[in-house]
């Protein structure tokens, strides 16, 4: 009888030991710190770089993006120097016709998301709109005007995409 109890305890210990790495992976906390860009527009380092070097220096990889909280993703995305590309990449010669500007902005957002993992990850988060709303409540409109506009445009895109996917 004692031998059977020892055998069962050893078996249970092995099972729990085998499951430990799985449990450890599931409790890894999300990173709440936005990415800090090593170089930003207006600095001497930025001016000395080629356009390709600037994009490389401001790239944030998928693994880092996936590990960020939605708030950190949002701030990282709004601070991305090339986010402004969403306003021009998706535009074509007919984009200024009535009804076409929204689709042009949508195209621009989608194209930037394909090359910038934090934006792509942000667009997939179910709490993105709530985080944008929360951030908009606390940011100063005058000091963060460009970021505020970008946040509002991203919010509108996410809400439109959600409405389209639920239909």
Radius of gyration: 22 Å
The overall pLDDT, averaged over residues, is: 82
Helical content (DSSP H or I, runs of 4+): 55-70%
Shape: globular
Number of domains: 1
Quaternary state reads single chain
Number of helices: 9
Beta strands, count: 0
Beta content: under 5%
Low-pLDDT windows of residues: none
Order of SSEs: HHHHHHHHH
Major sheet size, sense and barrel closure = none
Task: Give a structural overview.
This protein has helices at residues 2-26, 44-48, 51-57, 62-66, 70-78, 101-115, 117-124, 128-138, 145-166. By secondary structure, it is mainly α. The chain contains nine helices and no strands. The mean pLDDT is 82.
Short description:
With 167 residues, this protein is mainly alpha-helical. 64% of the residues lie in helices and 0% in strands.
What are the key terms here?
single chain, 167 residues, mainly alpha, 64% helix, 0% strand, globular
Secondary structure layout plus pairing:
Elements: H1 2-26, H2 44-48, H3 51-57, H4 62-66, H5 70-78, H6 101-115, H7 117-124, H8 128-138, H9 145-166
């Amino acid at each position: 009888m004692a031998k059977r109890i020892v055998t069962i305890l050893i078996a249970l210990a092995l099972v729990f030991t085998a499951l430990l790495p799985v449990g450890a992976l599931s409790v890894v906390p999300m990173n709440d710190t936005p990415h800090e860009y090593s170089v930003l527009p207006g600095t001497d380092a930025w001016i000395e770089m080629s356009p390709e070097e600037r994009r490389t220096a401001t790239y944030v990889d998928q693994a880092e993006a996936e590990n960020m909280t939605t708030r950190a993703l949002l701030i990282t995305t709004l601070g991305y120097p090339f986010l402004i590309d969403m306003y021009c990449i998706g535009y074509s010669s007919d984009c200024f016709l009535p009804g076409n500007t929204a689709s042009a902005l949508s195209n621009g957002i989608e194209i930037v998301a394909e090359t910038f993992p934090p934006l792509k990850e942000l667009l997939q988060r179910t709490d993105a709109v709530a985080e944008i709303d929360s951030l908009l409540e606390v940011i100063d409109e005058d000091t963060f005007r460009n970021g505020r506009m970008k946040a509002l445009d991203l919010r509108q895109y996410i809400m439109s995409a959600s409405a389209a996917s639920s239909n």
